[in-house]
Design brief:
The chain is of the alpha/beta class. The chain is 34% helix and 15% strand. This is Serine aminopeptidase domain-containing protein.
Length: 265
């Protein structure tokens, strides 16, 4: 049965998936999601629908193909794809435009921003980097072991297992060192939300902390109990809420909309 609240819409294209907000509400921002290794656009259906329900326009593109022999070309191709994804949205790219990347999607976005390998008019207003892998991050074993690295959420595990286009064993693919160096070494002034799970065996938490401190407008949020697929793990509701909080603060010059006056926790 189709979920009547799900306004995922066909676009006439085969390389993007759109999630629209409720009819009659003004679009609050454009969010472009870039998956990571082995993932498909369907991997982010739950996140896309949840953000769209809060009147954000969400467009999910295909995961980048990071060629270790041609990292520059890989970034150029991703930059062109992102520009196209925003420019050809049915209702236009409503500002702010926010890029969201997971795993190698996050690596590629961070490296792309460091190189400024895109047209200025296609530049995002902010970026969310989720599940950045460390330089020495590797995983081996069968599908069950890979699932354990990715997530403890039974719904997400089932979605990954049942999706025939998910490429199993992909977390063992090496990430080009040049892109990792660029991603972690960037000192971009762009508003940046870094998301990581404290149970992510692929994360380098010290490197993430250094990367966050090197950026003048960055926030590092650590999700308790979350694994590598931090956007889709058991804590996905709280993570989506953290993203919405960031998006709303972005619309308010990075001033938090809610300030805690006093609290017992």
């Amino acid at each position: 049965m189709t979920d009547p609240t799900d306004r995922t819409a066909p676009t006439g294209r085969t390389d993007v998936t759109d999630h629209h907000g409720p009819e009659g509400l003004r679009v609050r921002a454009t969010v472009v999601v870039v998956p990571g290794r082995g993932e498909t656009r369907s991997t982010y259906a739950r996140l896309g629908a949840r953000l769209a329900a809060d009147a954000y326009r969400v467009r999910v593109v295909d995961a980048p193909d990071l060629d270790p022999g041609d990292p520059t070309g890989s970034l150029d191709r991703l930059g062109a794809r992102l520009a196209d994804a925003a420019a050809t949205a049915d209702d236009g790219a409503v500002r702010p435009v926010v890029w969201v990347g997971a795993d190698t999607g996050a690596v590629a976005l961070a490296a792309l921003l460091a190189r400024e390998a895109f047209e200025p008019q296609a530049a995002p207003d902010a970026v969310i980097l989720a599940g950045l892998p460390g330089h020495t991050a590797t995983t081996a074993g069968g599908w069950d072991e890979e699932l354990d690295v990715r997530t403890s959420c039974p719904v997400h595990r089932t979605r990954l297992t049942d999706d025939p286009q998910v490429r199993r064993g992909s977390l063992g693919d090496p990430v080009p060192d040049a892109l990792l160096d660029a991603a972690y070494g960037a000192e971009s002034g762009l508003p940046t939300l870094l998301l990581t799970g404290d149970a992510d065996p692929l994360a380098d938490h010290d490197a993430l902390l250094r990367a966050a401190k090197a950026r003048p407008r960055a926030r590092l949020s650590v999700v308790r109990g979350a694994h590598h697929d931090v956007l889709n793990d058991m804590q996905h509701r709280a993570v989506a809420a953290e993203i919405v909080t960031f998006l709303e603060a972005l619309r308010n010059d990075l001033v938090p909309v809610v300030a805690v006056e006093t609290s017992a926790w």
